[in-house]
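Example record for the data management plan.
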Amino acid sequence: MFDMDRWLKRLLALLILGTGACGGRNAAIAPDTTRGTPVTPRAVRFSTPREIWGTKTRVVVVRYGSGQLGAAFGSGSDTRTRESYSSGRRRGGGSDGPMVNLIFLSGTEPGHVLLDKPAYVDEFDYPTTKSDSLERWIVYRIALGDTNKDGRLDSDDQVDLYVSNLDGSNLRRVLPPGMRFLNQDPVGDGRRIIVTALQVPNDWQGSDDELRERAFLYDVQTGATTPHAGLDSLVQKAARVVGRQ
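Corresponding structural encoding:
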């Protein structure tokens, strides 16, 4: 049986450790310094533990306060579906604030905080029903760097694709350097994910429209990312057909 008092005590301890590691004053992310007026740091907010299908693990969503970080969240939506959470505004108005971390509680074992540095968690997907039972992993879209140099982490920054075990352990980045993540879907074999990305040369200053899109297969069990040569070849053939017009 799930022990409410136990998880509350463990969750409180983990939140204290997690916010301390991020270096914010009573907050997981430092306040936005780009605004003209001072901004008071917000305390973190967190969800009740959510069950991960087929495990004893429960996941807790940690958000930065109850307000928005910037205008980037004004048109977003909290699109919690059967197996997905994303940063943004709630349905019906209001804002839960952006996701900034996750906490994993596993049975009687000590829990742990997923990230040890400030981050913007755009979305994460995890199995919640029997139909998801082949997917023995969790997928995350996370921005760890201020890629647009505006002094904050938000939906305008570049997100990368990460995968972890169902208990939140062994977090790893999927794509190699030089690839800008676009999309992902499970192959359906309980082992691999197909990932698309833009191939970005060093010091690229041109338009994204000129960048080549690539396909990769990521083996969750081995951690290997390999080009999807067959699909890449067919896409190039289709591109040549378009070029004849």
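Summary line stored alongside the record: The helical segments are 4-22, 229-243.
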